[in-house]
Amino acid sequence: MRLLLVEDDLDLAKGLLLALSAQGFVVNHVSTGKHALSSIKAKDCDAVILDLGLPDMDGLDLLKQSRQREGNLPVLVLTARDGIDDRIRGLDLGADDYLVKPFAMPELFARLRVIERRLGTAATHLIKLQQVELDTSAHLVRVEDEAVSLSRREFMLLKELMESAGRIKTREQLEASLYAWGEEVASNALEVHISNLRKKLPKDFIKTLRGVGYSVSVG
Amino acid sequence: MRLLLVEDDLDLAKGLLLALSAQGFVVNHVSTGKHALSSIKAKDCDAVILDLGLPDMDGLDLLKQSRQREGNLPVLVLTARDGIDDRIRGLDLGADDYLVKPFAMPELFARLRVIERRLGTAATHLIKLQQVELDTSAHLVRVEDEAVSLSRREFMLLKELMESAGRIKTREQLEASLYAWGEEVASNALEVHISNLRKKLPKDFIKTLRGVGYSVSVG
DNA sequence: CATTGTTTTAAGGTTACTTTAAGTATTCCC
DNA sequence: GGGAATACTTAAAGTAACCTTAAAACAATG
């Protein structure tokens, strides 16, 4: 995990750098809010350790800006200030955790490991093929970054096709996954949905295989 | 957000239940580790508040088992024990946060909000979309800088929607986050709340996706 | 215990999705 | 090229999902 350490006390920074890299973390160190922000913008780290007492900028301000720019970049705040009010302000502004100085190194490591574990398991069910992006968990489809609204059946159908991109889905397979047991469809509903889908997707995104079924290519 | 409160001190539990639901959390309460585990297995909550001092099971054990079963279910640990060693043990076993008793309620709320933010989209306690501003911590909503009064359920509903702005919330998801176990709703209460909310919000702020659910857009 | 505000239930009206069905366009094969 | 099979499009009919309203049940407050 790549860390950005924002700390103006050079002695403390040096100690932290040493200890963190001994624990296997990769750490970049900056000592001003300005540098911190540009590093955050460059998406150059997986998490931030932020000391609130900075010379050029209020730490909570920096936190706020970081939060606006990189929504869920984890930030662990270090502070000398005590008192519950300050802590709540920090947490509500988007800090993921909080450590009051002086703190024990092992506790810092433990908290970083929590963040690490969390980053590893950020699951999004997103399929992207060509210009088409389908988010199964959010029920959302984008074509060239433009949200497209699909009806329920259209969404189901597209999902089936995109989940087995590169392979052919037979008409029977598609009908089976769109319709539950009792409600087989007597007519050409499937073709109608395909037709309506195509109007909303790039040209030739869904290919027909005469006598067999449909497919979308991974290309 | 649905919480599971694991606490054997009934007085404390009662107080927490009251305070948390006033803050708009949906809370289920159990007092033994056994019940806690079965609820966790059933995936019936988004986060756990766990008191380490349980009668039937060591709290850290429960934490470990929960972690094995539900990898990233957030757990906030309450404890009377002090000393850094214990805290590190808790964090490394998978607790996401730690509060030593006695603690101040607002700090608990703040830490829950951190967890909440992490689970959903990275919204801070103040979410502003279009003309609508929602302050999670103050329970306040403004439309075009004009304060608007919402009932508890209306607020919860709007919060859920705004926290996942840009994504679609299914009916099931919304109902699950509005109602705790015993109080499932048999009828169209959700639709009624949506309808009442819309009267108080800008036109088309809440969009319907037939057969799927509802959403508000970030734009 | 009465008043007030909130939440749920229930019913009818409305909208938009889905299917049907009929006509048009393709592809394939002789 | 002509005929048959298959696929595509369109528009209208059917249907399921949703919206609104009003009233009943419930909870909080003085």
CATH uppermost class of the largest domain in chain A: Alpha Beta
Chain pair sharing the greatest interface: A-B, 34 and 37 residues
Counted beta strands of chain A: 12
Largest sheet of chain A: 5 strands, parallel
Give the strand line-up of the largest sheet of chain A. Answer: 2-1-3-4-5
What is the CATH topology classification name of the largest domain in chain A? Rossmann fold
Number of domain units of chain A: 2
What CATH architecture label of the largest domain in chain A applies?
A: 3-Layer(aba) Sandwich
N-to-C order of helices and strands of chain A: EHEHEHEHEHEEEEHEHHEE
Straight-line distance between termini of chain A: 32 Å
User: What is the structural class of chain A?
Assistant: alpha/beta
Q: What do the pLDDT scores of chain A average to?
A: 83
Beta-strand share of residues of chain A: 15-25%
Oligomeric state of the chains present here = homodimer
Whole-number radius of gyration of chain A?
25 Å
CATH H-level name of the largest domain in chain A... which superfamily?
Response regulator
**Low-confidence parts of chain A, pLDDT < 50 over ≥5 residues?**
none
Q: Helix amount of chain A, in percent?
A: 40-55%
